């Protein structure tokens, strides 16, 4: 049983509900019938979309192609609205066998829409590319007029000026880099000179520190000998 059969004959489950709750059964049947009618409308629009795809597949003139493309866009807008409407209606229903059947039918039709949409978009893209290639070939084959020659010459002059400006900018950047490198080199030279001039002072300080160490060790030894000679009670280091 397809979704066309809904609304014409109730299922066994719906007849049981009718016996227990006539009001709820009528409401459920009305909702399923409305969803079924909306699905039928959705399927009819999909059929129109398939015909548009067949027409685009055939060799069509540019004007016919634009008309078919406009019809395709309009049909897709309608289908998107119907899809959203059906999805909301199905979500509002209690999950039953009839609702599940409607959902399956809806998903099958949606898959057809996806296939058609991919086919149409692929054909439109291919035809637009062919028109673009034809336009390029026509322009290349057309004889060059005096105005075209003048515009081409002006464009070439602009390109040359731009290339010359770029070269000047790069040359100036290279000069700046060289100046910076010379400045860094001078700084290193100054640092080397400063370190060299202070090396003698550093060596003198190092020698004085070594002498101080030797004197301190010698003084300590003398104090120890004096302590051993005169006794710990008579020699005090303050």
From TrEMBL:
T-SNARE coiled-coil homology domain segment(s): 164-226
Molecular-function GO terms, alphabetical: SNAP receptor activity; SNARE binding
Keyword Coiled coil listed: yes
One GO BP annotation of this record: vesicle docking
Bilayer-spanning residue ranges: none
One GO term describing the cellular component: SNARE complex
SUPFAM superfamilies, sorted: t-snare proteins (SSF47661)
Region (Disordered): 1-30
Biased composition (Low complexity): 12-30
Keywords assigned: Coiled coil
Coiled coil: 65-99, 152-215
Top-rank taxon, per record: Eukaryota
PROSITE patterns (UniProt xref): T_SNARE
N-terminal signal peptide: none
Protein family: Belongs to the syntaxin family.
Protein's recorded name: t-SNARE coiled-coil homology domain-containing protein
Source lineage: Eukaryota, Sar, Stramenopiles, Ochrophyta, Bacillariophyta
